[in-house]
């Protein structure tokens, strides 16, 4: 089968690899109809998340059709259409039963204290092959796979695999309540989804900070207030917009690959910290293999965290879902301490939130589709990775169509486009078939 495979820093390939097989009674084999590229995938190629094994299939987002099940999978049968939550959990340990699926005691071969397991990641994260492939083996399938109604199409469902659960989790971590003013640092896919999730959870105002123009436009399409950190100092802007108080709740949707402003007052203010940021970058990514402007690690690993702490109101709460790997050792704890901030962070407990999000989409309460700004075939995946990595205009979220049989084509879900939290007016942003030179398979 075809799969996107990691061979080293700055080196991914579309390879022919063996099809997966059932290895455990609770496994299932899923034929992938749609996958996607995530910012986390870029960490492995840039070098900001080490420990990858050569030959690992990438990807942790997928929608597909069950092809085969092990004898321990009693709730699914071949032909069932499913969404695959990105993290893997057993469903029986005390953590899973309390809803902390990302901290499952049994999923990681390294033992109960080894941490989160997810598809297509490093050996420390379970060493599982990923989902940017024609078929995938899903461990603990009786728990992990979430059935899909045909009213939820592939374009909606693929964003329920990781992006929307993580954004929902980030809003929960930030403790958003009715009327809160929320600042979201980062307008990539998670930040965009966090706008809708914050609104559903009761936010009164939503301010989004980023430096990429088309991502800020997409946030404005969702009626968020936007701050361009290349045009103004984002901390000063958020404080000014909130009457000198700061945001009640902040979501850090950036993480280790944060970038410094290229110009403007924020760039001037940070100039004296260049040596510190260079040290942080080398610490976060001691090995790098950039190709010109591609596969370049972020040049300010702690910047999003620093901005989040500074723009938060006293006694506010910060929810961090941007990835900070173990080798990152810098956080502004002193500033957070002096402001009595509550800090919450971690890997999303996907399986806890996916079923409810599926129901929201099926009921028309939420339509995530417009966040997909590019739709390409798997044969174009490597070029799509490069465009996404460089944050080129129009490449906010990329879906990979693998095979059409059994899928529900984008726009054909009965609930499509009706949700109150829909990204308004952006359906036309999805690249057309002619633009990408193929069909939506």
Averaging pLDDT over every residue, what do you get? 90
From the helix content, strand content and strand pairing, which structural class follows?
alpha/beta
User: What fold name stands as the CATH topology of the largest domain?
Assistant: Quinone Oxidoreductase, Chain A, domain 1
The total number of structural domains is: 2
Distance between the termini: 16 Å
Would you count the extended β strands for me? 16
Radius of gyration from the CA trace? 20 Å
Indicate the percent of residues in helices.
Answer: 25-40%
Catalogue the unreliable spans: 415-420, 422-441
Features:
7-stranded mixed beta sheet; alpha/beta; metal-binding; Quinone Oxidoreductase, Chain A, domain 1; single chain; 15 helices; 16 strands; ER; 6-stranded parallel beta sheet; oxidoreductase; disordered C terminus; Rossmann fold; 441 residues; 2 domains; Zinc-dependent alcohol dehydrogenase
């Amino acid at each position: 089968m075809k799969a996107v495979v990691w061979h080293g820093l700055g080196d991914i390939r579309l390879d022919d690899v063996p099809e997966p097989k059932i290895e455990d009674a609770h496994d299932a084999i899923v034929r992938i109809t749609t996958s996607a590229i995530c910012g986390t995938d870029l960490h492995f190629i840039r070098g900001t998340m080490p420990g990858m094994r050569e030959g690992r299939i990438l990807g942790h987002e997928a929608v597909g059709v069950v092809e085969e099940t092990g004898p321990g999978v009693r709730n699914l049968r071949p032909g069932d259409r499913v969404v695959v939550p990105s993290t893997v959990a057993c469903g029986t340990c005390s953590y899973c039963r309390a809803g902390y699926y990302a901290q499952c005691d049994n999923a990681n071969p390294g033992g109960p204290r080894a941490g989160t397991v997810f598809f297509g990641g490093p050996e420390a994260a379970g060493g599982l092959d990923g989902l940017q492939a024609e078929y995938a083996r899903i461990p603990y399938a009786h728990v992990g796979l979430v059935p899909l109604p045909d009213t939820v199409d592939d374009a909606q469902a693929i964003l329920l695999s990781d992006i929307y659960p993580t954004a929902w989790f980030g809003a929960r971590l930030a403790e958003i309540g009715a009327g809160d003013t929320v600042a979201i640092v980062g307008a990539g896919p998670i930040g965009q989804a966090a706008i809708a999730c914050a609104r559903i959870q009761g936010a009164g105002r939503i301010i989004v900070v980023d430096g990429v123009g088309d991502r800020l436009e997409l946030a404005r399409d969702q009626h968020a207030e936007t701050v361009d950190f290349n045009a103004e100092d984002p901390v000063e802007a958020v404080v000014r917009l909130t009457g000198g108080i700061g945001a009640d709740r902040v979501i850090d949707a950036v993480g280790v690959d944060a970038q410094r402003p290229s110009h403007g007052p924020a760039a001037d203010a940070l100039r004296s910290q260049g040596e510190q940021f260079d040290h942080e970058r080398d610490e976060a990514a001691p090995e790098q293999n950039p190709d010109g402007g591609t596969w370049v690690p972020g040049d300010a690993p702690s910047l999003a965290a620093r901005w989040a702490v500074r723009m938060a109101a006293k006694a506010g709460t910060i929810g961090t879902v941007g990835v900070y790997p173990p080798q990152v050792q810098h956080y502004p704890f002193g500033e957070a301490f002096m402001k009595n901030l509550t800090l919450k962070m971690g890997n999303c407990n996907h399986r806890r939130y996916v079923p409810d999000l599926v129901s929201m989409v099926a009921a028309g309460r939420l339509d995530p589709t417009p966040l997909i700004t590019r739709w390409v075939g798997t044969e174009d995946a490597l070029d799509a990775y490069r465009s996404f990595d460089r944050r080129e205009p129009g490449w906010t979220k990329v879906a990979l169509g693998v095979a059409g049989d059994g899928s529900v084509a984008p726009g054909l879900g009965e609930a499509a486009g009706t949700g109150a939290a829909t990204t308004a007016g952006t359906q036309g942003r999805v690249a057309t078939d002619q633009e990408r030179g193929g069909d939506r398979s």
